[in-house]
Here is the input.
Amino acid sequence: MGTPTRAPLLFVAVAVALFATAPEARQRPAAGARSTASPAASAKPWSLARTSWGDPDFDGVWNYATMTPFERSRDMNSKEVLTAEEAAAFEQDTIARRATANQTAGPDWWDPGTAVMKNRRTSLVIDPPDGRVPPMTPDAQKRMAARGRPQRNNPEAPEDLALNERCLLWSTAGPPMMPGVYNNNVQFIQTPGYIVIVNEMIHEARVVPMDGRPHGAMRRWMGDSRGHWEGPTLVVDTINFIDKVNYRGSSENLHVIERFTRANDDTLVYRFTIDDPTTWTKPWTAEIEMTKIPGLMYEYACHEGNERSVIGSLSGTLATSPK
Here is the structure.
């Protein structure tokens, strides 16, 4: 796969505000003076920001990178949360292991957010309680085996290459959205009738109607999404995926329910439930905390088709095939 580049979508000028420093006498109380304001009185309670038409405001760019494993390691048994000391050791061990691993992207590609365990949880999966995805059905196991048959190492046609290798779709862009090595940013564009969820990975954009219309009948690469508000929570319901897209081995019957809840100015809690009875023995749920960042969204310049990489892969097969 060709190496993606990252080019800014917009060029902005950064304005620097100069603040006058107040005299020292105004900053410090007189000797012996005692403050009459209590911490509770001086602290302002957090209130949910809203759009001009009254919906919760998700404006900004949110990062969902994390070091937390997707599933809980079996050697952790029922341990849901690490101690601060255990989490620090886990972070150090993981960073050291990455430094010696043969990563195509290289050590400089890792999102800084992947260097920390945000809440010290041992897995992103929160249901089932063991922190692991339920077993696959027998039919799903057969389907997975069949999907692995194309000659990925010696492709004879573009269709033998994965969707991400052809820059068509990256499963981490969702739904559901999953942390990856890099490009773990998402932006929400809100209007009274629609919400657009723009993911940095392959610059994917989902247009989600919010007017209560039913799901359509057409199958789509990213499914057919419909949204509504439940108090402060944005709920996005997605079905009608095409059979060429599979999330962790899912089928076209995949049903994804995403819930975005703004917990404070800097945190957006993202929880999604996966339901596909033709793939897993029961539904399961994962949760990720997104952090608001002050930066901009950047284009993932991996053009559709990834022509140069695809031509190189096919040419390599042709050159090494028996004459």
